[in-house]
């Protein structure tokens, strides 16, 4: 137990030195470390310490069902035309959350069903149930209805995608260490430390950024549009900046280009007027489709649609080849940049609305930091005084382990790119208080062995050996509580659990292995006949 070869001593000192050095950048202002041109790891301050914005977003899951029906409409139309023999169908209706269409040739019912089975998915999740229920009504009319399990799986997928899109949009804003987590089945929690004005964030996250290019129906009757009546195969969309003064426009349902065909979007300036615009670059598929469509429709207008609202509807004066296009629509530099960020980060699969928001000022965060530092300093001072008075030299070793443990915890958190919150500071203070528990158990066990008449080396060796079992069991139960809080908790509870778990691991190492190494070195050097403990 007290045998420490030189390589082991050197390894322990090197490990502790490395972890302590990782904690140093946390105490240096970030502006200073950035001026060095080196990206050093540091412990980031959470929302309650650095100040910032908190948003709770809720998804409209009903929108998922409507989106699925519209997507299935396009799939059905494409699939029926693509394969041989071609299956002719009448107008498709998507009322009441169902998709229905009539076959022109009733003899093709079996062939149509086979194609529908291919595109409506197999099983929803692990349930084995189909994602769509297919029925034939009146011998030639198909009715497709989303199943409950299919909708549930679609909502789960949409929420996962929405969380990732929110993360990409916030990262594009250049913020550091945002916290973006799912809450329940249809909510997302967003915490952005350091962001004092949440309006730009709300505007960005509230934008679905569903981009579509569609051909305009120039033959649509303006009077019918005003009454909400669209020709077959068309849809009516708002057009606030319509030069004709009519705030509505009829466009073809079939989209030419969609947002998933974009490879990039940037805020730039229009060369002639120097007005802000959003320039887009399409991927290979989108570039080919855009070039083909503009070649076939020279002289006709097409609508640029964002979130089901027409931004502009310019005429195609000549084929647009090269895979690039621009959106002009009375943008400011800020609004154009926000739209560009939203487009290149991907469209939100569901609409998100803000149901709760709050802003934490930096002054409150500074007060929390001061209170946390004061509490930590008082805890360390009281622990150090108690150990010195009670255990003498062995108390000095325990105190050294406590001080090193503080820096080691910060070093591990910096290595893991952790974020320190106010509950995390509470976990920090608790860890300091319990860090000497192991040394108290060891020292008391050494006292007992000395009272039994064992010599110094035997007492120390048995003290560490016998106390280690109790220390291990106590910290395992402690760690189980921390793991449960980490898995089941969120926000402050999880922040507390992270610091607690790191503190348990580091305190056991410093309080047992590190102090045992110090005591073993002293025994070899001094060879004492008695000890004051």
UniProtKB/TrEMBL annotation:
**Sequence ranges assigned to domain SecDF P1 head subdomain in this UniProt record:** 244-350
Q: Which GO terms describe its cellular component?
A: plasma membrane
Superkingdom, taxonomy of origin: Bacteria
Regions crossing the membrane: 369-389, 396-416, 422-442, 471-489, 495-519
Main localisation: membrane
- For whether the record's keyword set contains Coiled coil, the answer is no
Q: Where in the cell is it found?
A: Cell membrane
Which ranges carry the Protein export membrane protein SecD/SecF C-terminal domain? 351-520
Q: Which Pfam families match?
A: SecD_1st, SecD_SecF_C, SecDF_P1_head
As for membrane topology, the entry says: Multi-pass membrane protein
Specify the Protein translocase subunit SecDF P1 domain's residue ranges: 161-217
> Which terms are listed as keywords in the entry?
Cell inner membrane, Cell membrane, Membrane, Protein transport, Translocation, Transmembrane, Transmembrane helix, Transport
What SUPFAM superfamilies does the record tag this protein with? Multidrug efflux transporter AcrB transmembrane domain
The record's note on quaternary structure and interaction partners says: Forms a complex with SecF. Part of the essential Sec protein translocation apparatus which comprises SecA, SecYEG and auxiliary proteins SecDF-YajC and YidC.
Could you say which protein family the record assigns here?
Answer: Belongs to the SecD/SecF family. SecD subfamily.
- Explain the purpose of this protein: Part of the Sec protein translocase complex. Interacts with the SecYEG preprotein conducting channel. SecDF uses the proton motive force (PMF) to complete protein translocation after the ATP-dependent function of SecA.
Question: What name has this protein been given in UniProt?
Answer: Protein translocase subunit SecD
* Species the sequence originates in: Sphingomonas endophytica
């Amino acid at each position: 137990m007290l045998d420490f070869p030189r390589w082991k001593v050197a390894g322990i000192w090197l490990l502790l030195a490395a972890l302590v050095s990782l904690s140093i950048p946390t105490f240096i202002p970030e502006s200073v470390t950035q001026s060095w041109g080196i990206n050093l790891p540091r412990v980031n301050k959470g929302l309650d310490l650095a100040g910032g914005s908190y948003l709770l977003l809720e998804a409209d899951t009903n929108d998922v069902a409507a989106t699925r029906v519209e997507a299935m409409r396009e799939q059905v139309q494409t699939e029926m035309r693509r394969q041989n023999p071609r299956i002719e169908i009448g107008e498709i209706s998507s009322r009441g959350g169902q998709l229905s269409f009539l076959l022109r040739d009733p003899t093709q019912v079996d062939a149509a069903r086979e194609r529908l089975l291919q595109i409506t998915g197999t099983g929803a999740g692990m349930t084995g149930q189909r994602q769509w229920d297919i029925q034939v009504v009146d011998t030639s009319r198909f009715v497709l209805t989303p199943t409950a399990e299919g909708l549930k799986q679609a909502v789960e997928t949409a929420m996962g995608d929405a969380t990732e899109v929110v993360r990409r949009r916030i990262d594009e804003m250049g913020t550091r260490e945002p916290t973006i987590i799912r809450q329940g089945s249809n909510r997302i929690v967003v915490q952005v430390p350091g962001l004092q004005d949440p309006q730009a964030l709300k505007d960005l996250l509230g934008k679905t950024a569903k981009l579509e290019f569609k051909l305009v129906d120039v033959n649509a009757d303006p009077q019918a549009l005003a009454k909400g009546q669209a020709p077959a195969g068309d849809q009516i969309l708002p057009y606030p900046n319509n030069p004709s003064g009519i705030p509505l426009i009829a466009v073809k349902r079939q989209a030419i280009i969609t947002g998933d065909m974009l490879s990039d979007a940037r805020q730039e300036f229009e060369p002639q007027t120097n007005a802000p615009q959003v320039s887009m670059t399409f991927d290979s598929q989108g570039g080919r489709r855009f070039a083909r469509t503009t070649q076939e429709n020279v002289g006709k207008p097409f609508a640029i649609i964002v979130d089901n609202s027409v931004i502009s509807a310019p005429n195609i004066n000549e084929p647009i080849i090269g895979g690039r296009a621009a959106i002009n629509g009375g943008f400011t530099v800020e609004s154009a940049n926000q739209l560009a960020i939203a487009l290149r980060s991907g469209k939100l699969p569901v609409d998100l609305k803000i149901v709760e928001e709050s802003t934490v000022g930096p002054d409150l965060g500074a007060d929390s930091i001061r209170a946390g530092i004061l509490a930590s300093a008082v805890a360390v001072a009281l622990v150090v005084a108690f150990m010195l008075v009670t255990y003498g030299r062995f108390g000095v070793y325990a105190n050294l382990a406590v001080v090193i443990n503080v820096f080691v915890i910060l070093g591990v958190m910096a290595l893991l790119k952790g974020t320190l919150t106010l509950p995390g500071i509470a976990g920090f203070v608790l860890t300091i208080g319990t860090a000497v528990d192991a040394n108290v158990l060891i020292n008391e066990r050494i006292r007992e062995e000395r009272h039994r008449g064992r010599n110094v080396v035997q007492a120390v060796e048995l003290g560490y050996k016998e106390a280690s079992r109790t220390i291990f069991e106590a910290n395992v139960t402690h760690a189980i509580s921390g793991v449960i809080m980490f898995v089941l908790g969120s926000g402050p509870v999880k922040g507390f659990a992270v610091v607690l778990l790191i503190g348990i691991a580091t305190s056991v190492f410093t309080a047992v292995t590190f102090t045992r190494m110090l005591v073993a070195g002293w025994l070899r050097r001094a060879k004492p006949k008695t000890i004051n403990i």
